[in-house]
Specification:
By secondary structure, this protein is an alpha+beta fold. It contains 16 helices and 28 strands. Strand 26 (567-574) and strand 27 form a beta hairpin. Helix 3 packs across helix 4 and helix 5 (342-359) packs across helix 9 (415-431).
Length: 627
Amino acid sequence: MSLSKTGQAKTLIADSVKIARKFYTFGVKMVKSLFCLGFALLFSLSSVAAPTVEYRINVDQATHHMAKVTIEFPEHDADELEVRLPVWRAGRYQILDLSNGVREFAAESTRGKTLDWKMKDKAAWLIPSEGNPVTVSYRIYANQLGNRTRHIDDSHAFLDASGVFMYSPRFRANPLTVKLTVPRQWRSRSGMTSAGRHKFKADNYDVLIDSPIEAGVHSFHEFEAGDRDYEILFWGRGNYDEQQTIKDLAKLDAEVEKIWGSFPYQRYLYMIHATTGPRGATEHINSTIIQRQRDRFAAREDYISFITTAAHELVHTWNVKAYRPSGLVPYDYQKENYTSLLWVAEGSTSYFDTLITRRAGITTEKEFHEDLAKGIEKLLNRPGRQAQSVSEASFYNWIESTNDFTLNHSVNIYAKGSLVSWLLDFKIRQATDNKKSSEDVHRLLYQRFKATEKGFTDADLLKTVNEVTGQDFSSFWQQYVWGKQAIDFDALLDYVGLELVGKETEKSVIDLGLSFDKDLTITGVKKDSPAWNAGLTKGDILLSMDELRLTEKNIKQRIKNLSPDSDVVIHFFRRDELQSVEVTAQVNPAKKLRVSVQKDATQAQKDRYKSWTGHELGTVEKNESES
């Protein structure tokens, strides 16, 4: 072969190789594209095709607190379907055994065939389904207003899914709808997306269980703050001022934005219950339920308590709902969810709620300082502060009850948690020359720990604090979180030009260490107090002091009139037998405390105070109800 032909052949071969490579590359790209397209299409179809669980509730016996619940579960790939009702609800760390309200449980196939079911445990039912769709029905008895789980009467139905709607673990992540059949004059509200006048939809059961429904006759308002939509309803007659409440709630929006920067919701619903007895509140992902006695809204002290509660629940939308401790992610609705970080979940929230109401100008400086003093006084008068750390209290919260252990051997995750959070905030400020605070820590937690994916641990929190400050806070954890180191309140207050003083400097405060109810039955005795050392105990019924009868009206004044170190004979009933003891009256220097502004506060202290509260130190204000 000639050289020219050889060269042509080589060129032809090279060109062929290039063309082949191009076709190969094109083919690979096409295969990848088709694979990706197919996967995306498959994912899209699987998402669209995810079967919906349909819930229906018919409030047909409202006067008797009863309703009929029907749930339609789709077909599935198992011979047996398990359905459950939670044994607790988020926000209240206590087993409530909610299945005690279930009546007339039944299960049917789509053809109406009755399915024989059996109970697996106190809150789980097993249904032989052969993979076919199943319709579950039961009656629910709803008369637990105070637990904020379920309450139905002739004026409304408050429905928290934890106490009303069963779920199947198999379909927990499936989309769902809830349809209500209620009296014609009723209206239905929820944080869930509306799908009709009395119908809602949610992405999954976790959204449903965090979006309680209030249906009934109530006052309803809508308002805006920032670019967010707010709603508020009032059920029950009470001495509340609806317009003032709306005005102040709108102020809170700006303050939480300054802390977290963005919002986990676009619409938020406040549900207010004015009741005869139950009180309390529970946070949800974009709503809250607040219960107060109907005549405890108007007085200034009551109103501040109410608005601070609202602030507390709003803060929870971030701290607990948007991000929360790992022990609570995901929620296990069938057992205790242990964590050593409830002092952050609840205590830090309690710290922020008082702070943002002050920053918003809702409370005055005097009211803010009174709240600080009250928190300090409560801790100093709880012997349990020397027995339990705030971390231990978080874990023990599931078993704590109101008894001797509560007072003498434990601390409260809200009260002590708030004070430790305050201390941590100031330690961070001190470490960064007041350039950073605990708000920076919570902002990072919000950005990094999405509650639907993972929670934060003790190590995560400590690491975040170290990152914000550039210092190692391990010793702080050892002393104040895991340990029981006493907080130096004088130093804490001095940082911002405040001081702690006795409220009654001219007269000592006598404290026997007793708490009692209206019948003068002792409800608690502080460890190592005069009453404790004399031998009085819970359950004793007080009768007389130095042979003069004690009554609900005179007992506090009688104790107040005692002289320090004087002996007094107290008669009481125990086991229906008359007994007596001699008690030595003692002064309690940790009673009637007051937080005051230092007369010689420096400019640096004043600057730090303003950075902390948003207001100048020593501001003289009147609350709006007085102006």
